[in-house]
Design goal:
The structure is a single chain. The protein has 124 residues and is mainly β. Helix content is 0%, strand content 50%. The protein is built from no helices and 11 strands. The strands form 2 sheets. Strands 2, 4, 5, 6, 9, 10 and 11 form a 7-stranded mixed β-sheet that branches. A 4-stranded antiparallel β-sheet has the order 1-3-8-7, with no helix packed on it. The protein is globular and about 40 Å long.
């Protein structure tokens, strides 16, 4: 069974850090792109970052550049999103998704597999 499970969310003060994990099972991320998306209450879902696990190509939304870092550990079949200098506007449910194609224009619905999400709350 294919699964993506996000973890690492929580409550943090502004300026703090969190590391989200996206653990894949049922397939190997070696030849997949993994994307992170987020959706805040009352707002549209947005792409945050993505990585091609095969060659390490990455993408970041302008809103998180310089603060977030995406990485993959193919041996653990897991992708991470290190989030530093968090702001209240980063508060959202964060989702990961997987697809064989790396395309920074992909919406979450374009991805083959999607996780259930983890809540990140940043207090001011």
């Amino acid at each position: 069974e294919v699964q993506l499970v996000e973890s690492g969310g929580g409550l943090v003060q502004a300026g703090g850090s969190l590391r989200l994990s996206c653990a894949a099972s049922g397939f190997s991320i070696d030849y997949y792109a993994i994307g992170w998306f987020r959706q805040a209450p009352g707002k549209e879902r947005e792409g945050v970052s993505s990585i091609s696990s095969s060659d390490g190509t990455t993408y970041y939304a302008d809103s998180v550049k310089g603060r977030f870092t995406i990485s993959s550990d193919n041996a653990k079949n897991t992708v991470y999103l290190q989030m530093n200098s968090l702001k209240p506007e980063d508060t959202a449910v964060y989702y990961c998704a997987a697809d064989p194609v790396f395309d920074s224009d992909y919406s979450m619905e374009d991805y083959d597999y999607r996780g259930q999400g983890t809540q990140v709350t940043v207090s001011s």
